[in-house]
């Protein structure tokens, strides 16, 4: 089957969703609790947009604390995780993202986003091998989404940073090629968005070559443009191209599709040979121009949205709706403007006292029932399409932006007949009927602004004080983290005294927080334990690091950091050469249900057995290591460690001279785990296996792949020597003949 599909921006391909992800499932919270949780989430968003990040995070946390089974908890965690990621608090971010990317969350958009963010966290931490595993899972689990395309991008960036330039190029080639196979063909185009043309035709792709396939776009208002579509990757059956669109009079041949609101676009290409053996068949697709309207109350320059209007001053209104630009003159639309007043803030309850802080106010508001309004006044207002900036007088107008004003008069005074009356604290509501949009039915678009006294410049935020004590301990923890990082830098430079001084300062800051505030805030005390174990571990004071891990497990058995603590304790024992002790700890972690660190623990068991075999020169431990790696691969096939475990299994077979089994595993590793950190070793040993099996040409191919793809690998030198030896042997054989 040969198809021509059109996608108006990736968001349209994936469907028209509201700005917040659809919330589905995820618990049995009541509708009332869900409404309260959503109110807290919205309050947090408002604080975030106002730049009050601490207040926003507190409100998101309140969603989790007060409504732990609400369907909105996942979105709250996702927002918290993204803020922690921006602040480079990677452990906290990872914890939040992992709690979103769970099966209990029925919102696939949120799971896909969270899964991608886990990979980005590892990328930002420089833990590229772990990032590869997470990002490949995103590509596999969420094909045809923006998350899949972003995953390819970060895979390419990671390979680039590691000097694997050939791998980076392959990954970058796939950015933008992940298209949902189940996505419907777009029937509508929002003017100003890019028009993407997708042709699914394997025969045509093969014929296109470097010249591509020319597609023609013709509008009903007279514009005509062409675009060349190329295969998304060499040999792919899908060809893609795109054209820029904008509102305006037709200018054929300028590579931009000019549109007006009533336009239809006809897109055609010539199918040189169909599946029915017909030649030069014209394929055509027609789409309509529409636009999703946006309604705003703006400043006097009609530029920035505002959240309030001033009594006795005009309100400035803006509607952006591209499909209402239907002529060369300034077109007009109509909106309904009304003022509303709260008549019952908390039906069925007593009026609450004024809360003491902005956070308390948001929490109090969430506990209240939805306010009841009555309409005070209502007017219809005509808005006129405004010309573009710097446009000549009398010229054609094609902006799709409609503007107008309405005076806000004080209720009780004799107003201008065209004004709308209100009082301070009333709500001004603008309503517009979007008759033609990307949605199936006409949609009502609304926006609101609060009526205030005085002046909009500057807008003051009431009750926005930051708690001094809260600021102190959060500053202290940030100072501790910064000192630890400085200590790590000194340590890497070999400046031992300076690094120890910084670590001790970091410990002093953290201990002060634990003494001063830990008894009052258990979550804070938990964070101090985590911070202190990291500092001790960085100082190589492994005993105290393990002691802090044990204390964390004892006092906070349900902490999300218990897994990390167990892993660290095992690593401490492994580093100290106490391999049997380490194996015991790793087994405890590997047995934890749903632990994200279980695969790492199972893999570490194999490493411990390998080291035991080396230290005690006992081959039995290598057999135990093989079984541990095999268990890792079989129990956690999608984990970051799966590819490495497979490589270790192959090495075991190589050491036993079971080359056939080794080759099978090496081939599987190359196909399924191309980003594994041991792929250079896999290629090297693959080549050695082939040499042992007398398949010299194939061996040279693998060694050359290693040399080209992993030029910085320590295996490259030996690979080059083997290739040279094989070439000399072949040359000598040819001379002898």
Features:
Immunoglobulin-like, single chain, alpha+beta, 737 residues, disordered N terminus, nine-stranded mixed beta sheet, 18 strands, 24 helices, Serine Threonine Protein Phosphatase 5, Tetratricopeptide repeat, 48% helix, 5 domains
Write the layout of secondary structure elements.
Elements (H helix, E strand, L loop, with lengths): L2 E6 H5 L17 H19 L3 H14 L6 H14 L3 H11 L7 H17 L3 H14 L4 H16 L3 H9 L14 E3 L4 E6 L1 H7 L4 E7 L4 E8 L6 E10 L8 E4 L4 E10 L5 E12 L3 E5 L9 E3 L3 E7 L11 E13 L13 H10 L4 E14 L15 E10 L9 E3 L4 E8 L8 E10 L15 H25 L3 H22 L4 H17 L3 H14 L6 H14 L3 H12 L7 H19 L2 H17 L6 H14 L3 H14 L6 H14 L3 H14 L6 H21 L1
Parallel strand pairs: 2-9, 6-7, 11-18, 15-16
Antiparallel strand pairs: 1-3, 3-6, 4-5, 4-8, 5-6, 8-9, 10-12, 12-15, 13-14, 13-17, 14-15, 17-18
Helix pairs in contact: 2-3, 2-11, 3-4, 3-11, 4-5, 4-6, 5-6, 6-7, 6-8, 7-8, 8-9, 12-13, 12-14, 13-14, 14-15, 15-16, 16-17, 16-18, 17-18, 18-19, 19-20, 20-21, 20-22, 21-22, 22-23, 23-24
